Amino acid sequence: MSEFALATEADLKRARTDHAFRQKLIAQNLDHLLAELNKLRKLDAASDPLRAAQIREGVRLAVRLAEILSALAKNTAPDTTHAA
Fold first, then answer.
1. Residues in the chain with pLDDT < 70?
2. Residue 80 within a domain
3. Those residues with Cβ within 8 angstroms of residue 43's Cβ, 6 or more apart along the chain or in another chain
4. How far is Cα 21 from Cα 62, in angstroms, rounded to an integer?
5. How many degrees, rounded to 5, is the angle at CA 61 between CA 56 and CA 67?
6. Domain that holds residue 49
7. Is the residue at 56 inside a domain?
């Protein structure tokens, strides 16, 4: 996996109008998040409450990103009112 880079304003602007690019950007971010969660999982999260909380938060975000990708695949707008 390549080095993670934050989305630029230009990326975000393009994602608003380019469906395929938006899907790719979200998928790349989901892949990166899952890789980082896997690294955290391999550490002893049970002995570190902060790390365990980070993993839970990351999992919630991963589920939300997956929901967005699924909605995009169906060519519908995701429900952005759903709080993770």
1. 1-4, 45-46, 76-84
2. no
3. 51
4. 19
5. 130
6. 9-73
7. yes
